Amino acid sequence: MYRTKTCGELRLTDAGNEVKLAGWVQRTRKMGGMTFVDLRDRYGITQLVFDESKDAALCERANKLGREFCIQVVGVVSERQSKNPKMPTGDIEILASELNVLSESLTPPFTIEDQTDGGDDIRMKYRYLDLRRSAVRKNLELRHKMTILIRNFLDAQNFIEVETPILIGSTPEGARDFVVPSRMNPGQFYALPQSPQTLKQLLMVSGFDRYFQIAKCFRDEDLRADRQPEFTQIDCEMSFVEQEDVLQIFEDLARHLFKEIRGIELPALQRMTWHEAMRRFGSDKPDLRFGMEFVELMDVLKGTGSFPVFNEANYIGGICVPGAADYTRKQLDQLTEFVKRPQVGAKGLVYVKFNADGTVKSSIDKFYEPEVWQKVKEAMGAKDGDLVLILSGDNANKTRVQLCTLRLEMGDRLGLRDKDKFVCLWIVDFPLFEWSDEEQRLMATHHPFTMPNPDDIPLLDTDPAKVRAVAYDFVCDGVEVGGGSLRIHDGKLQEKMFQILGFTPERAMAQFGFLINAFKYGAPPHAGLAFGLDRFVSLMAGLDSIRDCIAFPKNNSGRDVMLDAPGELDPKQLEELQLKVDLSQE
Amino acid sequence: MYRTKTCGELRLTDAGNEVKLAGWVQRTRKMGGMTFVDLRDRYGITQLVFDESKDAALCERANKLGREFCIQVVGVVSERQSKNPKMPTGDIEILASELNVLSESLTPPFTIEDQTDGGDDIRMKYRYLDLRRSAVRKNLELRHKMTILIRNFLDAQNFIEVETPILIGSTPEGARDFVVPSRMNPGQFYALPQSPQTLKQLLMVSGFDRYFQIAKCFRDEDLRADRQPEFTQIDCEMSFVEQEDVLQIFEDLARHLFKEIRGIELPALQRMTWHEAMRRFGSDKPDLRFGMEFVELMDVLKGTGSFPVFNEANYIGGICVPGAADYTRKQLDQLTEFVKRPQVGAKGLVYVKFNADGTVKSSIDKFYEPEVWQKVKEAMGAKDGDLVLILSGDNANKTRVQLCTLRLEMGDRLGLRDKDKFVCLWIVDFPLFEWSDEEQRLMATHHPFTMPNPDDIPLLDTDPAKVRAVAYDFVCDGVEVGGGSLRIHDGKLQEKMFQILGFTPERAMAQFGFLINAFKYGAPPHAGLAFGLDRFVSLMAGLDSIRDCIAFPKNNSGRDVMLDAPGELDPKQLEELQLKVDLSQE
């Protein structure tokens, strides 16, 4: 046996017992003829003591231990003189009588502490050392705990986890597929699934009724923001259900997770339509941890003064930042720059300071009579001491999205986005289609299998852009954690959808023939939802990036810098696949 | 609500209640003014009755229902006149008052029954219909149940499930990799993991201690026998352990599964060395459900008669088939043909019939004095009425493998391979290396990271082929369900292994540099094991093929005939990947 106990479990009640521990040297220090070693394993840290006066040779060997040496120690548990109340094992130490170096370590390239001195790049290259830091390891432990809770919850609700294949066919709709050349079928390729969407719908056709899978998904997208080429979904589908059934089950699941993981009783989730969310927060994933709701100011500011920007605008909206009227010129300039950044893209920021002394100061004072600012104050519900920030533009929703970014920035600045506070809600009634400027056509907001709202079906022929989908997103703290929809199970309606999306019948058949055919054999009404596991874990753990809850993530170029992958192939491999790399096309 | 009850749950105690059911029409039949419909869902079958005398129009609509229509029905639960004790719902029927066709069905291409009339190909093409058959669905339900049991068992033992990446680097050692071109890194490729072997070893370096993952693995091999290009492993690794710790935990896991799934108390598993298994059964995965152990007959038959084949043989071995002395000439001819098949490859079969009347008849009577057959009888422990089958050859182990195939064939013929009987054992002390005729070099029997038996380390320099590995397989009923090994955690020993395997230091570094480097930072002693989930489920369910427990399997050409994948890519996709298909190399 390499150990009889772990480094996290010994307490004062164990005093007097001989134990064997194994782990890594966190640090060593000499003090008055004693050598102290902090021994670390996954379960905690235990202090070892080597007493020079009792065994000088042993102590000498302990002095030679370097950081991250992997060692095994025998000794007696004993009460510490100076206890450390911050550590669960802080009451005891081990009076070591044997020491065995299991393997030595080079000096690690960064310190293995919660607050490390290692930059992102070096920590990714040595990810196996980064994972020794308890701050990182805890995220993976949380991830494990969440998946166990999720699986047992869904199992208890009669859901069956079914593994769907990773090597499937390519469907060039939506994001870009990763593809896999088939040696046995030369010139042909598999694709990795962007999600098990069509396969889980087939399982519904098969009568599986309640399916789930914690499934790897793959998208070959440029990795802006917090994305990974491979990510994990909690993928679910149910038959013989309406939207309400789905929301109920997955709200219960979310409530269960918040309770078990964070000890939080989530209240019943509010529902907000997509239109309302856009109007009030400029986002289909509003962060409701704080207010600063949008107030439309068209009536108050358009045509009531001589500011040409407002007079030409199709949308003017503001947020009221409480207590921020004392923002300095410099701070306001920063905000003005912030909204001009390409990521935000707003043309200009207008501010109105309602000073604590009752005076008003705006960046466009000269264009308006003072009573207009009083109307703004009323409309915004602003109090003396508040700062009102206003954006305007041609396109209402685009301007709202810009205002949303500003709102979130102000939330951050005011410390209102508390990582220990969770406000979840359902966004419902998404538009079924969205216009793609790039493709110059209507695209499915979710995917081509989403059910239109039955009330809007006549609009499919007359004004498809207005059709609402029976689709829903689970949103928490400004993050889209999950989403889903009722699916079309009627062949005729599905045909019409493909038609509106610009598919020829031939193309629809070539891409989705298996599903279209399957629906001819008694397809049940069905609906589903998928949570992003990486995002859900990050949310629960309060992480800034999903990378922090992934054991071996890739960087923004899609590289695993630790494995040095991807890499070049052996020419023999390419030959067997009957492929040639042709970089001339670049 | 689409339904208030499922089709599997109604009992006589529900009589009088109005219920709503939804499901598929299994069959309809008219009888004396009544129409009976068997309604099926995942949970069972419930009989619906439409009474012409009560609602002729409704009954008329019921008469028009076709097989596999998806319908919804309202009615009152009522006691059946003629009960069906074979069905859990056989005591009741539903007196239908409403019928709603949710979606119609074409006539399915085969019957959706436990015993279907559909051949393999058509069932695979319409796999979504095949999955409606309860015989198939039950396998996936079992698979789900097993994974839940496995995860909860391992979780309770402090194992953490960690997801390792699917897009990794190619290591052209062992089987062929599936590769994935990287658009963001033109000319470079990811590989899909053949197993998470190196990644789980890195997690041990990270201190994760007890890892598991139910992981998809990929091997681009020609799909002879019962293989799939993607398959699933229960992949585990532990630190600070010896072989004994690993065997104990996973024997406990297996015992837990057999108990929970099959209600069987597995006895403590016997351990058999690889050498013993080869000697006694000619296989490293012996089927111990029946006897017919090999008896070596070199002393008895080599040089004791004039049969040249035996006199030149380096191995002569036999099995005693109890009570088979009455095998006819035709049956014996069949066996002679059987051993000559290319899959077996034996040169010739010799039989000795110890007839019930005490006489002896052998295919090589003329070469031996009668007393030799008495010695054979003694050596084999044969009784009157038994049949002894003998094979011989130049190479002892090759001949044993042939004799093993014959033994299994006889086990099948005698009905001794009972699918409800489970005999599990550990095979230990595998050879560390095996000679590859193809590559003309020693290859790692398992993989290059397997620890040699400490007693055999001196042999690494003198006679590596004799070195035993600390490696073990979990075998049940002739199936290798799992296997693993203690790993090398010492850099120097690992270097030596690579050297023996013919890796230059540069090549070792290029392929496994990340692991070699990681081991420089205090690698703990570690060991692991992986079960093949598909095989384990098949074993538990008594399936002939792993395909039967996989939702969407591929055929022997690696094709998913339902999805029609793999397929050709859009030229734009190839362009983006800077690849060209070059079929001229064929």
UniProtKB/TrEMBL annotation, chains A, B:
The keyword ATP-binding applies. It comes from the Bacteria. It catalyses: tRNA(Asp) + L-aspartate + ATP = L-aspartyl-tRNA(Asp) + AMP + diphosphate. It is an enzyme of class 6 (ligase). Its EC number is 6.1.1.12. Residues 197-200 are annotated as: Aspartate. One of its GO terms (biological process) is aspartyl-tRNA aminoacylation. ATP binds at R219, D220, E221, Q228, E480, G532, L533, D534, R535. L-aspartate binds at E173, R219, H446, R487. GO terms for molecular function: aspartate-tRNA ligase activity; ATP binding; nucleic acid binding. GO terms for cellular component: cytoplasm. Keywords: Aminoacyl-tRNA synthetase, ATP-binding, Cytoplasm, Ligase, Nucleotide-binding, Protein biosynthesis. Transmembrane segments: none annotated. InterPro entries: Aa-tRNA-synt_II, aa-tRNA-synth_II, aa-tRNA-synth_II/BPL/LPL, Asp-tRNA-ligase_1, Asp-tRNA-ligase_1_N, Asp/Asn-tRNA-synth_IIb, AspRS_core, GAD-like_sf. It is found in: Cytoplasm. Residues 140-566 form the Aminoacyl-transfer RNA synthetases class-II family profile domain. Pfam families: GAD, tRNA-synt_2, tRNA_anti-codon. Coiled coil: none annotated. PANTHER family: ASPARTATE--TRNA LIGASE, MITOCHONDRIAL, ASPARTYL/LYSYL-TRNA SYNTHETASE. Homodimer. This is Aspartate--tRNA ligase. It comes from Prevotella communis. The lineage of its organism: Bacteria, Pseudomonadati, Bacteroidota, Bacteroidia, Bacteroidales. The gene is aspS.
